[in-house]
Structures are given as C-alpha cells and as structure tokens.
Amino acid sequence: MDAGFVATVALVYAMSRRRPRIVRRCWVHTILRKRLQRGEYHVLVQELRLDGVLFQQYFRMSKDAFDELLGKVGPLIAKADTRMRLSIGPAERLGICLRYLATGDSYRTIAFSYRVRHATVAVIVKEVAGAIWTALVEKTMPVPQTEDWRAIAAGFQERWNFPNCVGAIDGKHVVIQAPANSGSLYFNYKSSHSLVLLAVVDAEYLFRVVDVGGFGRSSDGGESLRDGSLHLPPDTVIPGGERLGLLPHVFVGDEAFPLLDNLLRPFPGRQLTRERRLFNYRLSRARKTIGRSSRTPVVPVVAESSDEAPTLRDAPMMGSNNATRRSIQLRETFCSYLNEEGVVSWQHKVV
C-alpha cells in the first residue's frame, strides 16, 4: 500500500478525532472589571459618607456604627488576594451584606449595583452575617442572667403594672426553601417550609432573647422554659400579694403558646367572666412590647423566596396545650391578684 495514502488516511482520522476548540468565556465580565471605578460601594457609598443622614438611610446604620462593626468583623471576613485577581475588601463585603439586610433586595439587584456576580453576593451575605453573629452575640445579646431577669421584672411592674413578668414572648414562621433531603421537617401548617423565630422582649421594647432554627413542623415554644436553662430568679412574693405566697417569674404570650408554670397565656373563649376579661386585658397590655417590636420589617437571610407570599407568618401553635394543674392554678392566682391587690384605677374603664 502506498505510504502516502496511509499517511493521508491517518491524518484524516486524527483530525476527525480532534475535539472542537472551546471558546472560553472571559475570566471577568467587562462590566465587573469596572467595579473599582464604578461599583456602588466605590462611588455612591463614598459620597454618602459625607452625609450622615443619607448614610443612615442607605445602610440603616450610622457611619460610626459601620466603622465600629467593620473593626470587629473585618478580620473574620477578609480574603487574600491572588495572582489572578484582587479580592473584595472587608468594607465592601460588609456593605453588600448590610445593604441586603437593610432593603431585602434580591441578590441579582445587589449584584448589578455593586458589579459582582449574584452568586458572590449570596456567599458574602452568608459569610458576613455569620461573622456578625460570631463577633457580637456575646456582647450585644447575651442570655440574661438572674439579676438581669430581676431588673426586667421590675421594669414590667413599673411601666406595665404586671408583676413578676420577665418578658413578652412571640413566635414567627420564617418561610424558606426546604434544604435538600430534609423531608417534611420544615413543612408547616401553611403548606410551606419554614424555620421558627422566637423572641423575648423586655419592658423597654428591647430584644433580650432570640432563637432561630426550630423546624416549622415541630417547634416547641416552651422547651427552654421547661428545662430551666434561662436561669430565672427564684419564686418571690409579688407587691401586696402576701396572701398568695411565693409566685414564679413568668413570660407572657398569646394563644399560640402553651400554658406553663412560668408562661402565662390569655383565658380562651368569648363567654368570660369580668375578672378573666380584665386579666386578659392586663396580659395583652404587657404584651404590647413584643407586638410593636415584631412588627418591624425583618429581612430573612435564610433563603430567598421566589413567591410573593409573606416571608414572616404568625405561628398558630408553639407547643402542646396540655397544661398542668399547677400552671392552670397559677393563671387563676394571677387573675385574682390583678382584680384585687394588683388592681389599677383605670382598668375597669377599658373592659
């Protein structure tokens, strides 16, 4: 066989086996390359720093607070530069996260403004939010100790005329996209998936305890109250209630919560005696603090929802309703006190 013919066949075969050349996409899009010159952080935010009011409106945080927070979380979120590209600095990372938390805009909207990829925004928000929690949780929102609970109780007695109250408690379902392989753990009564947000507020509308992460289908709002991990003060005599003996410190909640030895809820039903209606009014009045605080818009970091349903939903039931005899009697005791020794002059005018 002719050697030239064989060589030609071999060449044709080799060419047929050659993979088509892949046209690579650019390493960084031309728009993203101009981040340092035209990105929102490097242009608008720097101009906003000259006006404290506008800076506050943009980040929901003052310049001093931003710089202080940056000093605490900066080392936790800093990334090293590589030979291929410069990293996004800690200040810009913090700005991206705070802007997302302040507005609730989608990752894509933030990405266009800051000239980064939307996947990068998603990573930054998660990392920075975690760093903020790590840096601030022990100093900004430590779990109250016994003396702190006593001070909170004194505040409720002075401002809301409710004795031995150490906080108003409420819960919300935070709608999320179900994590992979989670089954029905996060599936709730609204036929959606959620985490449970629980919060306790003091007499001054300040959040004192926040718990996030209970499964939407099986959350129990009374677990931490039952296990004694909150270090509540020992039972004490309430003002003017010597005949009642020692009474526990209590939280006040709505109908969604179980009646416990240290958690009061309203009397159910409509055909109530005047005394029970007065008790319900006084308890509801003490709960105003959590009602007003929980109406503040909250942007969930857990997930972005594609539907238009409310992201925060009231939790209809936060545990079992099987009250003990002691908890039932405790509510009756508080009801008796608020209608006798603990009566206030104006309560009969509003009920």
UniProtKB/TrEMBL annotation:
Keyword check for Hydrolase: yes
InterPro entries to which the protein is assigned, alphabetical: HARBI1-like (IPR045249), HARBI1_dom (IPR027806)
Database matches in PANTHER family: PTHR22930, SIMILAR TO ENSANGP00000010363 (PTHR22930:SF279)
Location relative to the cell: Nucleus
Residues in DDE Tnp4 domain copies: 169-292
Keyword annotations: Hydrolase, Metal-binding, Nuclease, Nucleus
GO molecular-function terms, A-Z: hydrolase activity; metal ion binding; nuclease activity
Gene Ontology cellular component list: nucleus
Co-factor(s): a divalent metal cation
Main localization, broad class: nucleus
Pfam family, one: DDE_Tnp_4
Similarity-based family: Belongs to the HARBI1 family.
Name this polypeptide is given: Protein ANTAGONIST OF LIKE HETEROCHROMATIN PROTEIN 1-like
Source organism: Gymnodraco acuticeps
Stretches for region Disordered: 297-320
